Amino acid sequence: MANTVRNKILILYAPCGAGHQKAAQALSDYFKSQTEDDVELKDILEFAPSWYRKIYRDGYYFLIRKLPKLWAYLYHSTDLIPPESSLTRFWRQLEHKWFASFHRYLDQSHPTTIVTTHFLPISLLKDRKKNNYQLTVVVTDYCAHNAWVSVFVDHYFVAAEEVKKILVQKGIIPERITVTGIPFKPMTASRESRADRKVELGLNRELFTVLVLSGAGGTGDISALIKKMEPYAYTLQLMVGVGLNKVMEKKLRKDFAGTPLILKIFGFTDKIYDYYQVTDLVITKPGGLTVTECLAFGLPMIMVNAIPGQEEENAKFVEKNEAGKLVKDQDDVPATVVALIQDREKLKALKDNASRIAPQDPCKKIFKEISE
Predict the structure, then answer these.
(1) Residue 95 near residue 127 (C-beta atoms within 8 A)
(2) Residues of 171-207 as b/e, b for ≥16 C-beta within 10 angstroms?
(3) Mind listing the pLDDT tens digit for each residue in 326-347?
(4) What does the alpha-carbon distance between residue 129 and residue 106 come to, in Å, rounded to a whole number?
């Protein structure tokens, strides 16, 4: 009996912001449940020298926390550089040397399909002769920077029609772009009532519940925000996620040990859906994956501390579709929250709009397209 040759699907991400990794993990889990082909999930930075990994990952978090204006300049200036300029080609030659182990891995593993949720692999694969694999790209924001653009990409999967239009303007053939939504882990139904789940999390079953998210990097002055919420202690309760920022988590626990608020503080978690399920309103940085998850749960958003560039564009998408509001001055957040609590019709409209534009089965759509 002849051996059956199995295809291999390689899914790549970079851990610069949690969204790229979470989208890749969601795809990996779904693909493995649907096919007998080999599915492998890899962090592209594992193939880089240790110094490069540290600079690339930690440098990103440093810039968005400490030097957001510099990050904004870098984001917008690089978006003006053509994808095949002499500067980008020179930088790509350096990257090929630094990622020599990645190219050796490809030569040995022979993937038939490569899916990436980060733009770095696009650059690494541009000058590599593509004999036997298709390269597909999942754009994980509601915009598309020039770093995502390459005529060597076989297919793009994007969050919304607006992103497709941007890619077409940048020279990508429309037939190579499919609007699927950003992939996220499927929601699971709970047998418990929403009130019972609140009690399990240490919350009041009756109070209006606000979830505050600072992103994976834990950015923004969350302490000042919580302080301004204390006068409304008998109107609402807070759940505060600080991501990977252990320093912020420790500080908040110390500063608000005696707060009149019902306050639950938590770090980076893979059980964020437990929090979404008991939430009435989200105050968040508008990362692509976070926005997508909130839409999927029908949660209206007050967006703050947006990273210049991609997160500002994500916020514009949400505002355009009237599923949330970008508040540029954090001091205005408490009044905005209370106004929504008092205007339940407006709050319901935001929820309905969030549900209306929420992606439907993005993992399923991407798998189907790739399989065909």
Answers:
(1) no
(2) ebeeeebbbbbbbbbeeeeeeeeeeebbeeeebeeeb
(3) 999 989 999 999 999 999 999 9
(4) 11
Interval 198-243: pLDDT, tens: 999 999 999 999 999 986 555 567 889 999 999 999 999 999 998 8
Looking only at the bridges linking them, the beta strands covering 301-303 and 281-284 are: parallel
The CA angle 15-75-248, to the nearest 5 degrees, is 50
Lowest mean pLDDT among 61-65, 119-123, 157-161: 61-65
Tokens 């610069």 map to which residue? 16
* CA gap 34, 189 in Å, rounded: 21
Domain architecture of the chain: domains with CATH: 8-179 (3.40.50), 194-357 (3.40.50.2000)
80-92 per-position pLDDT tens digit = 887 777 778 888 8
Tokens at 46, concatenated: 């594992």
- The whole-angstrom separation of Cα 334 and Cα 225 is 8
Contacts of 51 (CB under 8 A, 6+ apart): none
- Strand ranges across the sheet with 177-179: 38-43, 8-13, 113-116, 134-138, 155-158, 177-179
Which has the closest alpha carbon to 236: 200, 283, 270? 283
